[in-house]
Amino acid sequence: MRLLCASVLVLVGSVGSACISQTPGKTSLDIDTDHDGLADSLEQSLLEQFQPRFLISRTDCSSKPAEFTAFSKRPIAADDNGTIYGQAFPSPGETGQVELHYYDLWRRDCGKAGHDLDAEHVSALVARDEEGTWKARYWYAAAHEDTLCDASQVARARGLDAETHGPEVWISAGKHAAFLSKTICTHGCGADRCGDDDALDTQRIVNLGESTSPMNGAIWTASTRWPLKQKMSRSDFDPALLTRVNALSVDQIAWANPGKRPAQAAILGGGAALGAAATGVHATDNALDVADTHTSGALDTASQKTGNALAKSYRSVKKALKAATGASTKAPQTE
Predict the structure, then answer these.
(1) Alpha-carbon 271 to chain mean position
(2) Residue 242 is inside which H or E element, if any?
(3) How high does pLDDT run on average in the chain?
């Protein structure tokens, strides 16, 4: 078999590489528009196979994720029609794995510190099994990434019953943080609410390509008005994180950034009575440790504790917050 490659001009206005595999009696053409080593057709097939089932609040001020105007350097929300944008690229980890990103992009964040444009996402790490079938290995849900209130989570696909298809993902009203379980939605800094949800009727999945080689006119991904380019330029599946997840039971969901949990617990309790501050967070020092690689059940069990354990835990998280923030008690802005 011979492999002939050349550059071609594709309809979206960017140059892609085309490889023609020549075998007796058979010729195929696979275009790799974003130059990442994966054919466009494979990327689209995987994005469609593993598309998550997004559950969106019926009262969200932005209604649905937006479709953005192609070939505009400035991100312009053209229609709140439920479009989901995708990205597929070879994983920087184990050979043969592909990382899929699903971006729900919003006209506006409607939280207390609301702002125009909101870029959120869910990710999967997929690979072929011994029979050649593509299966997901892990799922990641982004929630207030790169802030002190980061409540992003990661889980094994088998535990979510999402190996051959996407999982259910709850999107918090107004803030648009993603959660792999409805139960854990409120366990960040307290601003997220999941309820009154409808399944999103996704109009289509549009491949963004790569940050350095956008597809389908998505040149607006490079805009500095939102952190989309940064999200597209990194993997969500750090080897150390996967090692920690693999040490848990298969049905457990882990915080991606457990070191921030004590500070978040104190923020959640800020300005509230002692009982309210600790209720629903982590009632004992042991529960704090459990919550670092948590299940929703562990959190619910902790929230039922009362009395001296509450006071002890609240003092502990206050101490942890001072250590983490240089004794500052000012709550940070969330994403």
Answers:
(1) 30
(2) helix 239-246
(3) 79
